[in-house]
Structure formats: C-alpha cells, structure tokens
Design goal:
CATH superfamily of the largest domain: MetI-like
Number of helices: 15
CATH architecture of the largest domain: Orthogonal Bundle
Order of helices and strands: HHHHHHHHHHHHHHH
Organism: Paenibacillus methanolicus
Keywords: Cell membrane, Membrane, Transmembrane, Transmembrane helix, Transport
Helix content: over 70%
Number of domains: 2
Largest sheet: none
Structural class: mainly alpha
Subcellular location: Cell membrane
Number of strands: 0
Oligomer: single chain
Main location: membrane
Radius of gyration: 24 Å
Shape: globular
Family: Belongs to the binding-protein-dependent transport system permease family.
Length: 290
C-alpha cells in the first residue's frame, strides 16, 4: 500500500471541501424554490422559508396543474421534444455514420461545411425569413426544423463510429449484409451509448427552448412550457389574471412560480437517471479518435 504524503492528504480534503461548497451553492437555490412551492402563503410572504417547507401544502401544485394554459403548454413541449428528438437523433446517426466511412467521396469537404456552421451562423433575421417563407410560422415544425441536426452532436457520433473496428463491417459484408443492415444490426447496437447521449442532449435542448417560440409562435395554444414559465416568472400574468382565485386559495405568487419551475424541470430530470450509464461512456468514447 502506497503511503500518501501530508500534502496529498491536505490537497484531497481541500478538493472535497471545494466540491461540497460548489454543490451547496448550486443546490440551495433549487431547494429554496421547491420549499416555497410547498409552503403556505404567510410563511412565503414573511420570508421564513429556507430549504425546508413551512406549513406544508400542495395548493400551488393543484392550482398550476389545473390551469388549462399550463396543460396546453406542457403537451406542446412534450410533443416537440419527442418528435424533435426522434428525427434529430435519426438524422444525426445517419449523417455521422456516412461521414465516418473513409470511402465516402468529399468527406472532408462535407465535414468542413458542418464545422463552418458551428462557427458562423446565419443570424436571427435570415432564419426568421426562411421560416416565414416556408410557411412554418405558428406551427410546431418551426420549433423543430431550424435546429434539426446539431453539428456538435453529429461530430460526437461520427467519432464514435470511427472507433468501431472496420473488421466488423467487413465481416457483415462477407455474410451478404448491405449497408443498411450493417448499420441497423451491427453499428447502431454498438453505438447505443453515444446515441443515448445524443438523445439526452437533443431532448434537453428542445425542452428548454423558448426563444424560437417567441419568434415563430404567436398563437397562445401553441406556446411551449418554457414560454409559459417565463411569463409566470417575469410578469406573473397568469396569477394577475386570476387575482380573486389566488386570494381565495391563499397562494403566494412565489409558491406558484416555484410550482411551475418544479413542474417544468421534473420531467427532464426524471429522464436522466435512465440514460446516465450511457452518458459518460458515450462522451468519452466519442472523443478518443479524431
């Protein structure tokens, strides 16, 4: 057993302390929001709520979850996230696999074009004009199509496919398998870690996106959950439009905001544990080879 020096021991404990401090800095505001969402009006208004609820109540969640606008926004976000993630991951896998094959003509040129879009972007106004000309305004497709393929995710997937030995593809061809069969029966099962990682990236991006909706959506019934959350946090429009109802239920606006934040964050947080075992492996193995 190797004995550690005193300096190494001190360094390790200092690291633990700094990491714990960073965790507390990030976690305490979240706990405070959750605690306010489960506390009664008098405790929240008095500023007595810390990281633990006072006079536990779920009235804020009853109010939020029964709001037609919240339910409509939530369903739009789920629809956009599911459809967008499925299409995005599919196109990313196809593109990454094709660009990982050395026999593809013009491979370097195509890769340079993808990298170029990561550095230089068209801008807000040209993108808006294209979306308008395509007739996608006030459509959920305006929230999906503009960011359909992420160059960053594609490069990660491509590098992962590059790390898969060519002998597997050659053995598949010797057995009479075509390109699609090799992709679906050999490559994709081996690439599940990076595919799951890419799916998580896409899902989080679609779920948290609100700026696209502000630009392309004007119909209230098509606004996603993040726009609704923004309205509640910054303008509390939903609470102000129902002052009598809120007063009757004795719910503080801070509790309503906290309930909306928790309800908007919880779905994507619940997905992460199921993909966690793929996450680190997909990132590390996808970044080994250039």
């Amino acid at each position: 057993m190797k004995l550690r020096t005193r300096g190494e021991v001190v360094f390790e404990y200092v690291n633990y302390f700094l990491l714990l401090l960073a965790i507390l800095v990030c976690l305490i505001p979240v706990l405070n929001i959750v605690a306010k969402s489960f506390s009664d009006e008098s405790s929240v208004v008095a500023g007595d709520v810390g990281i633990w609820p006072i006079h536990f109540t779920t009235e804020a969640y009853h109010y939020v979850l029964s709001s037609p606008k919240f339910l409509s926004s939530f369903s739009i976000s789920v629809l956009v996230t599911v459809i967008g993630t499925l299409i995005n991951v599919t196109l990313t896998v196809f593109t990454g696999y094709a660009l990982s094959r050395r026999r593809l003509k013009g491979q370097k040129v195509i890769m340079m074009l993808f990298v170029f879009t990561m550095i230089f972007q068209a801008g807000i106004l040209p993108t808006y004009l294209i979306v308008k000309q395509l007739g996608l305004l006030n459509s959920i497709w305006s929230l999906i199509l503009p960011g359909l393929v992420s160059p960053f995710n594609m490069i990660i997937v491509r590098l992962y496919f590059c790390n898969i030995p060519d002998s597997l593809e050659e053995s598949g061809k010797m057995d009479g398998a075509g390109n699609l069969r090799i992709l679906f029966h050999i490559m994709i099962p081996l690439a599940m870690p990076v595919i799951a990682t890419t799916a998580l990236f896409c899902a989080v991006e679609y779920w948290n996106s609100y700026f696209d909706a502000l630009m392309y959506i004007s119909k209230q019934n098509l606004l996603p959950l993040q726009v609704y959350l923004r309205e509640v946090i910054f303008s509390t429009s939903d609470a102000n439009n129902n002052v009598e109802m809120v007063a009757q239920m004795q719910i503080a606006q801070e509790s309503i905001r906290g309930a909306v934040v928790v309800a908007a964050t919880l779905p994507i947080v619940l997905v992460y544990p199921f993909l966690q075992r793929y996450f680190v492996k997909g990132i590390v193995l996808g970044a080994v080879k250039g």
